[in-house]
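Quick bug: Aldehyde dehydrogenase family protein output formatted oddly.
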Amino acid sequence: MADRTWRLLIDGEWREPSGGHYPIVNPATEQVVGHAPEAGVADVADAVAAARAAFPAWSRTAPEERARLLDRVADLVSAHQDEIVPLAQAETGSTMAIARATQVPVTVRRLRRYARGALEQRDVPLAPQLVPASALAPGALVGAVAARRPVGVVGCITPYNFPIGTMAGKLAPALAMGNTAVVKPAPQDPLACLLLAELFAEAGFPPGVVNVVTGSTAETGVALVDSPDVDMISFTGSTAVGTRIAAAGGRTMKRMLLELGGKGAALVLADADLDTAVTGICATWTFLSGQGCILPTRAVVHRSIYRTVVRHLADRAGSLKVGDPLASETVLGPVISAAQRDRAEQLVESARAEGGAVVAGGRRPACSPGFYVAPTLITNVNQSMTVAREEVFGPVICVIPFDTEEEGVAIVNDTRFGLHNYVYTADPARGYRIAARLRSGYVGVNTGHQHPEAPFGGFGMSGIGRDGGSFGLDAYSEVQSVVWA
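Here's what came back:
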């Protein structure tokens, strides 16, 4: 696909971008995958105007029609998986195993879930109340309903680590609720998102309902956030960018759904099943090369089992194959860019300088070309160290000991982030009690699995709002109270 010409989707048409095109680089080979459109401010304005014009008719479209179209896109994604998966893999640098297991299956599941969601009744009837006469109205028995209404035009800004799955996770509930959308994919890997946009158009969504603009700089996203005709921003990405979006969006009182950074911890109690705990912690190395905000990058381990856990983790790190993501035996592919590789390496060096001990990894793998980071394990860590406080977004785990449950909980909570934590214990009831004390939006007890209907989002600097399941439908709607006598 390197020679394919990609365009912007605006008002149902494929348009040439005003700024030309820019190269998309495969993180494993450093070769050009394709050239993405460079949208300008005027392109974004046109996309927003198209979404605004399409909103009145789309918001009144029958829920059954919205459901049919979302199901149709799911059918098309399944039919085109042999085209989507290699492109998404090449852009992200993920292993082929991860690309096959996540890209299309997750996208299809989300589309089908919100096809059903379009038919879901989210209005809440309220019991009649007898109200006395006032200057406004005579006394009456008053009924009411808290009705869910679409927000309007939604700007969807997606991350580079999971491009099309996140695009579907934003678009599907937004469209199911009757919103229109402008999607701005991450600059590093937007081509699969443009391919997904083609399938939305092929499915028959009316012009202007789904628009996609791409760009290599912050200008495209800034124009989307600043537009007074955008009613909501749904953003997944770094906390640094999310805080700027929140500040800019506040000037026009936009609704915000912000899923931001994380510094997840696995709290491993003395009675934990070590194999389960170690496997869960190792997800930081084995899933997308550590490029996930939900990953347990801090292992907070009871001192009685600390050395054993460190030994098991070090053994696992040494057995993980780093290299060509297309090779079946590869477990860790590259990170997304040279800049991200350099950031991870700098944080490892800061750990060394602050007294940490690098017991596995810590040096650049002998893989060239490509942006590779070795699975790295750091001990002798405390919460004052930079590597324990900052999100690495790479395959780096630090291990911190604790003596009492109270101390362990305090270490886990000693962070500005609060997205996803984990508790490992032989006593699920104890795990549930501890979860109530952890300041994070999601807690896994003895598991790294997520429940597809559970609300997802963060505390603190990990974001604002919740999506997932029916909570996703609520996230892309406003509440309107309708009262009658």
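Actually, after a second look the formatting is fine. The mean pLDDT is 97. Closing.
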